[in-house]
Hints:
With 313 residues, this protein is α/β, with parallel strands linked by helices. The chain has twelve helices and ten strands. Helix 4 (70-86) packs across helix 5.
Amino acid sequence: MSTIEKSLAKRAAQQGEQPVLADSTLRQEGFKPKSRTPHVDNQSGSDIHCFPWDDLRPLGILTPNTKRSQLAEEYRQIKRPLLMNIDKKGADIVDNANLILVTSALPREGKTFSAINLAMSIAMERDRTVLLVDGDVAKPTAAKRLGIKHEAGLLDLVDGSSTKMSDVLVRTELPNLRILPAGRPHDRATELLASEQMAQFMSEFSTRYPDRVVIFDSPPLLLASETAVLSSCVGQIVMVVAAEQTSRHTANEALALLDREMIIGLLLNKYRPSLGNRSGSGYGYGYGYGYGYGHEQSPEPDSAPIAQQYPTA
């Protein structure tokens, strides 16, 4: 702890207040969430967002105290090949592998749930920093679900309303996790996401910090044309597929909008094990996963549920 921080802590103790620690101190002493109200970071002067963990746990969102649960274990397995590709240790080597687009064919398949949990899981890594971008600007959910009420965000950055990244980036109590909200509503939001300016920002996201992983919660593929455009700027794509909800024909239609030379993973969500499968009986949130890795594993076009093609591992 620096001399300034010691002085602040001493003054706070004399006044009966909780001392405020800088981000570097949080890294050194470990994360121990206590306060649920934002506090001021001494280094930057910006608010640090404290997550409403008690509200997030019932929703199935991973928390720093979630260690050996089935949900945590499954996201550990899901993130591992993504991280290997970032480190150029995977089967394929691609540019911008640290930019990961999370999408789905249609709404309500669980892409935001998956994007948040993937970001939380990677943020638990000791040598990674994570930026979660709320890119579903027509129906922004990620930042709101995490309790963030920050108005400015991605759209303000792209249209020039905010010229600095620091103006729109939300620091959180997890020292290596940042959130970029969708931003203020804009009449030309879809055009902004598909613009050259957005492509430049995506490139900046990729190269600004060598240890940063950017998780982009994007609009559904079949409802927003800009998602296919954004996919050309990233290195990896995770397409969330709802078990017993999304047909193979729908999944194929969405996959056809993507560059098949890219690394594409299919994440099976909302999978419910059969009554005879006791291995899944402790899964409280009704979510499961099946991770099909590589473009050659696309399902055959018919109306059967995708869950039959990709069972859980």
